Amino acid sequence: MMMMQGTVMKITEQGIVVLCEDGKFRNLPHPPSMPKLGDTIPVPDAEITIMRSRWQRLQKYGIFAAALLLLCGITVLFKFIGIPAQPVALVAIDINPGLELFVDGKGKIEKAVLVNDDAKWLVSEQQLKGKDFYAAVRLIINKAEEQGYLNAQAGKRWIWVSVVDFGQSSFDVDAKKIISGNQDYEIERFDANEQQVEQAKKAGLTLNKYIVYEQAKQKGIELNVEELRTHSIASSLIRAGINPEQFFGKSSEKTGSTGNQKAEEISGNGSAQEAQPSGDTQKVALPVQTDTASVLPKGQSNEQTGATKPVADQLENKQRITKDDHENHTAIGHMEKAQPEPDVQEIENPSSEQEKSGIREFELSVTLDQEQKVKLVYKNDKGRIEAKVEKETSQGKERLQGKQAIQYINGVIQKLGLTVKMDKLALTDRVSSALNFRKDQWKEMEVQIEFSNGEKLEFELKNPIRSAEETTREEKREKEKESSEKDDDE
């Protein structure tokens, strides 16, 4: 019998491990004379065969038996219980409510993720789960119309859709099936991948907003990420001086006569900054104007509100400030000086805008921390508009009037998406978002709204979050007082 030499590398209770001349490790049973580590011993071929057959045979049988049992168990389980359908695609939808719909191979909604608070107010996951994809999207659009997020006549007409194919089955979105023939909306569709989904999550953006952000970056446009997180895509583009229809290469024929006229102005002047935004886009842009900051707890002066105007107006204002360095011109003064002051309704055409939004009177008063108060007043008396915005702090008062006040309040109203039967707490949350303060920052809120049909929405409310905190503090003080009195008695 041919013998092979091996060096003893390890000694265990079951046997010894040797490194053979062919470079392989082998397990051998204990020999009659136990060697030491490092000893060279003969390794007969017979021993190699015995060693292999002992453990490997058991391992193979064990693995085979386990696999067989697992296969049988899975087969029975799937047969009697069934397995949930795996999503084949992710469809991300942005209106400003952002939703992610996971679609299975049958075109049903397997899971729905409500990305932001607006989406949670809009619809629940239970209302979408199990529905046909197109039926679910139509439900979302109908709810968005009811709550004021979509209104083609008021300029709220953009829907963004991104499709991520997971590669298990082909799934595509037919825009014609999303909206009915009488719904005049613009649908912008993107093809995306899982890497973009991850990047969007890291940036804290919805998938559509991340894609638009990247597209803008490629065109040399830097969008504000913070604004994208809290405002619609259209609002963020307009804030950056970009017409959404031009950015996405859409025709402006659907915007109506006013929209066409404005589009012609923009085209003729060579840039969107040299003309007022169209009636469509103006309505979307207003909620994100920095006029918000000028009347909210950030202490910014009225002059800073110029950042929300078209770039050409900003440059004109800066030039005036340079020339009249020693004169105290406000932003309103600059605008009055730039052109003759017409009636308010001629500046903004608010009568037609407010007929669309259905608001006749709007009054909002909010008491905040640090003795700050914000008050918004708007009245539309047969087309004659009056508006003012006041902010009161320990350092004094700030006020917006005329055109700026109308622009600002229009933006707030559009952001709130007002309805007669709106829940009070839901409205307070939207007010916090629209006016850019924390939900726990306001103390008292008073709302008086009269709609164009004569119905009213009125309430006064103390912040339930602060009330609960104050109750807890009061109870704690009472307990401490009782404990102190008890100690004194003892």
What's the domain count?
A: 3
Order of strands in the sheet with most strands? 13-12-11-10-14-15
Shape descriptor: elongated
Total beta-strand segments: 15
DSSP helical segment count: 20
**Average pLDDT metric:** 73
Task: Tell me what you see in this structure.
This protein has 490 residues and is α+β, with helices and mostly antiparallel strands. The chain has three domains: 3-80, OB fold (Dihydrolipoamide Acetyltransferase, E2P); 87-280, no CATH class; 289-468, no CATH class. It is built from 20 helices and 15 strands. The radius of gyration is 35 Å and the shape is elongated. The model is unreliable at 252-357 (pLDDT under 50). Residues 461-484 have a biased composition (Basic and acidic residues). It is found in: Cell membrane. Residues 4-52 form the RsgI N-terminal anti-sigma domain. It is a single-pass membrane protein.
SSE topology:
Layout: E1 3-11, E2 16-20, E3 25-28, E4 40-44, H1 45-80, E5 87-94, E6 98-104, E7 109-114, H2 117-122, H3 125-128, H4 133-146, E8 158-165, H5 175-178, E9 186-192, H6 194-203, H7 207-218, H8 225-230, H9 233-239, H10 244-247, H11 256-269, H12 279-285, H13 291-295, H14 311-323, H15 331-338, H16 344-348, H17 350-357, E10 359-368, E11 373-381, E12 384-393, E13 396-401, H18 402-416, H19 424-435, E14 442-451, E15 456-462, H20 464-489
Parallel strand pairs: 8-9
Antiparallel strand pairs: 1-2, 1-4, 2-3, 5-6, 5-8, 6-7, 10-11, 10-14, 11-12, 12-13, 14-15
Domain RsgI N-terminal anti-sigma: 4-52
Protein name: RsgI N-terminal anti-sigma domain-containing protein
Keywords: Cell membrane, Membrane, Transmembrane, Transmembrane helix
